[in-house]
Design brief:
nine-stranded mixed β-sheet, 50% helix, globular
Length: 264
């Protein structure tokens, strides 16, 4: 994995400033929108069913996050995903908390069958989407990413998408290839919605990187690297949060070439 390729993708992202249509949860809206702005993309947090198709049409990528789902939101997510497919727009599904309740798990599986470009979740969520009996601790994983690798590869092949399993080491697969992303910092788990931000950044990278496997790994690597940079001066989760946004905004070529750790 060539770090120069990631820098090239990030530079193009900042030049293009892609519009990323995010149907996401109430908890994640603020940090997700600000992370997208900081990295150089343009966020749109739009979920009304009356306008999702129009926004998909003018956006470069769609992000669907079921964190605070409700039937009306699920209808909007379904319509937006189908329209993205019809228009050939990339879209990312984040099955937040899949495995926690039967409704949440059912919705995750139904949306996954709409063939997202990338399915990103923690290990327990991915195992639940795949049909296993995995349970989450609320929205937190009780499994490690490597435990889900085999299932992730099978699910990616079945759905024809990339599956990104985040954890201490992120694993990303398209069913054939596997990349591991080793960037990140333990304090990031103490800031809510950074996983949701990872999904949103994946959408931004998909807008400019035609290989979904590379786009996923690059987005996760950049966020993890910025988490490491932010943690160096952070006193705790509160300061990590704003320092992470600054790190996304200020990330330069030297830091990417020196610090990114994505392995085949």
């Amino acid at each position: 994995m060539d770090n120069a390729n990631t820098w090239s993708t990030l530079r193009e992202l900042r030049r293009a400033a892609p519009l990323v249509h995010s149907i996401t949860n109430y908890v994640a809206m603020d940090v997700t929108a600000n992370a997208l702005l900081a990295i150089g993309a343009s966020p749109a947090m739009v979920h009304a069913i009356e306008e999702v198709e129009e926004f998909v049409a003018i956006s470069s990528a769609l992000v669907v996050n079921i964190g605070t789902l409700s039937p009306t939101w699920v209808d909007s997510m379904t319509r937006a995903a189908r329209h993205a497919n019809a228009l050939g727009k990339p879209w990312v599904l984040d099955p937040v908390g899949s495995g926690a309740t039967s409704y949440r798990t059912l919705v995750s599986r139904e949306l996954a069958r709409l063939h997202p470009t990338v399915l990103r979740g923690n290990a327990s969520e991915i195992l639940a989407v795949a049909g296993g009996e995995a349970r989450t601790k609320g929205v937190d994983s009780v499994h490690g990413s490597e435990q889900a690798l085999g299932v992730a590869r099978e699910l990616a092949a079945e759905l024809g998408c990339v599956v990104a399993v985040t954890g201490e080491v992120d694993v990303v697969s398209d069913g054939a290839r596997v990349l591991r992303v080793e960037n990140g910092h333990p304090m990031m788990t103490k800031v809510t919605a950074l996983g949701c931000a990872a999904t949103a950044l994946t959408g931004a990278f998909l807008a400019v990187q035609p290989d979904p496997l590379l786009a996923s790994a690059q987005a996760l690597g950049v966020l993890g690297l910025c988490g490491e940079i932010a943690a160096r001066a952070a006193d705790g989760p509160g300061s990590l949060r704003w320092r992470l946004l600054d790190a996304l905004y200020n990330l330069d070529e030297a830091a990417v070439l020196r610090g990114l750790r994505i392995r085949e």
